[in-house]
């Protein structure tokens, strides 16, 4: 199953360094903005997560910096679902207006039961149901 969303981001001045390029740590923020849009697209944003009794901490992340992002540049961040059965793996691609890949990466999150603080070994029903409602039957 493939499902993705796209988020447009205008690079703000406060994200660049003295060389007028985005400081490497801000890429994590752009992934987070895209991830929030992705989760909101099927009504499982962070508030809904908490209300369903789970938190989803990031346990692994990778970023490959291909070309620098610059102040005033508009970029598109594509967030794609790669795994959902036992953990949430999302892939990210940041492209410029011409479709040129500038950055890619992924995050892995696991569900943690807020009452017991125990990691879940399968994706909670609330997540699966909302995703299936958006994309159809999960395979």
TrEMBL record:
Pfam families, per database record: 4HBT_2
Instruction: Write out the transmembrane intervals.
Output: none
One of the entry's Gene Ontology molecular-function terms is: fatty acyl-CoA hydrolase activity
Q: Which UniProt keywords apply?
A: Hydrolase
Q: Has UniProt tagged this entry with the keyword Hydrolase?
A: yes
The highest taxon in the source lineage is Bacteria
Q: Which SUPFAM superfamilies match?
A: Thioesterase/thiol ester dehydrase-isomerase
Q: Which InterPro entries match?
A: 4-hydroxybenzoyl-CoA_TE, HotDog_dom_sf, YbgC/YbaW
UniProt key word Thylakoid = no
Residues spanning the signal sequence: none
What PANTHER family does the record tag this protein with?
4-HYDROXYBENZOYL-COA THIOESTERASE FAMILY MEMBER, NOVEL THIOESTERASE SUPERFAMILY DOMAIN AND SAPOSIN A-TYPE DOMAIN CONTAINING PROTEIN (0610012H03RIK)
Q: Which family does it belong to?
A: Belongs to the 4-hydroxybenzoyl-CoA thioesterase family.
Instruction: Name it.
Output: Acyl-CoA thioester hydrolase
């Amino acid at each position: 199953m493939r499902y993705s969303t796209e988020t447009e981001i205008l690079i703000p001045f406060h994200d660049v360094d003295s060389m007028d390029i985005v400081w490497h740590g801000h890429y994590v923020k752009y992934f987070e903005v895209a991830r929030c849009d992705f989760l909101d697209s099927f009504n499982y944003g962070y508030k809904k997560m908490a209300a369903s009794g789970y938190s989803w901490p990031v346990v692994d992340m990778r970023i490959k910096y291909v070309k620098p992002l610059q102040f005033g540049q508009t970029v598109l961040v594509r967030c794609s679902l790669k795994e959902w059965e036992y953990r949430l793996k999302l892939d990210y691609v940041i492209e410029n207006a011409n479709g040129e890949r500038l950055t890619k990466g992924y995050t892995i999150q696991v569900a943690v039961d807020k009452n017991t603080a125990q990691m879940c070994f399968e994706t909670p029903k609330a997540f699966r149901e909302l995703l299936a409602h958006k994309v159809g039957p999960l395979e």
